[in-house]
Amino acid sequence: MLPLSYAPPLPPPQSRPNPTPSHKPKPQPCVLLFPAALRTAAAAAAISFSLLAGNAAAVAAVEQPPEICRGQDDGREVEVKAEAVTNEQLVEEAWEVVNEGFLPDAGSRPWSPELWMQRKQDILQGSIKSRSRAHDIITKMLASLGDPYTRFLSSSDFSKMSKYDMTGIGLNLREIPDDNGSLRLVVLGLILDGPAHSAGVRQGDELLSVNGIDVRGKSAFDVSSMLQGPKETFVTIKVKHDSCGPVESMKVQRQMAARTPIFYRLEKRDNENSSVGYIHIKEFNAVAKKDLVSALKRLQNSGASYFVLDLRDNLGGLVQAGIEIAKLFLNKGDTVIYTTGRDRQVQNTIVADSGPLVTTPVMVLVNNRTASASEIVASALHDNCKAVLVGERTFGKGLIQSVFELHDGSGIVVTVGKYVTPNHKDINGDGIEPDYRRLPDLNEARDYLSRCQSKKLS
After folding, report:
1. Which residue of the set 162, 225, 372, 402 is catalytic?
2. 120 in catalytic set
3. 372 included as an active-site residue
């Protein structure tokens, strides 16, 4: 599964710099034996938040616990307080994350493992006398990369980020393959004292069903959407505690609900006999796919002959939501997006795993504030000859950030990869050029898509 990605707020459009999956951090450079609960990398479900005002971006993902039953822990693991981490170790920990995964061409300054090693040696020549000084050193060390998205997070900023909840009940799910090759959904992270935690869900529990529907084999994203609902309503879940514990059913009250970002209507265009289904997607969140499916079906049943998908001013949201929405329009096996980076966990080819929900022509409206996950959708539909792009060149935000927690509760955001379109175009910086500046008529769009298909097959 593509790890979810966090993308920090976009800079002003005129600067057009450089979206986001997170993955587990590399083994820590410190020699201390830290408890597993402290070794976290945010958003194992891949959350890319590129909203200008967004500050919450990812769910803190706790390392997978060992497969043991409750009560069988021998108690040897002793919790280590943040104070036990030396300032030098904290700086080296941040250095190591960059050393293992930073994407060199993301920064504006030369980078190589050799230059980065020299920087560590220069920094650690003397002692670092205070924690605030260590944080200052990390901040400057990351700034030296020349990448506006690789940066330090204070513990308060990391805490805000780590509590983003796309389920509405305060948990983060991870897909784990079992011995038979199918997927289990395991609770990777919990908001302490959140609804799921208060109801008795614990890290490492397997989620078996939601409102009586078996969820084994389903994606973490789809099940997270199933858990969503109106605030203060209840959802019934069944979990298996640890790998060999009891199965328990529980009712959990939702604490928050994602608002629908989907707005749609049926229109008649001048000089056309056919009806068009107009759909505006404001952002990509946990309910975007579900609500878009409903909109597409209702518009089709109402007589829509084709669709206009409006992604103007859509600055992104959940990367995985964008990927799942793109799949609704693609043929099975079509490439949605490529991700590249130094770390093999970042290198991925995401393809559609089923046929399209609609086969009628699609026009996608874009502008210079169409960014991140929106650009993934636009390029996937365009490069697979499923849609024509109309409007202005998109923003061009194609970098992937991972969020890592350091052992004192602070964190760092590091650019680890980038997105490449199905036609192998690097989104970052350049954006995507539309096919038309103004909305074409239906026949023009059909002719364009037909030529595109012929060229693709030749």
Report:
1. 372
2. no
3. yes
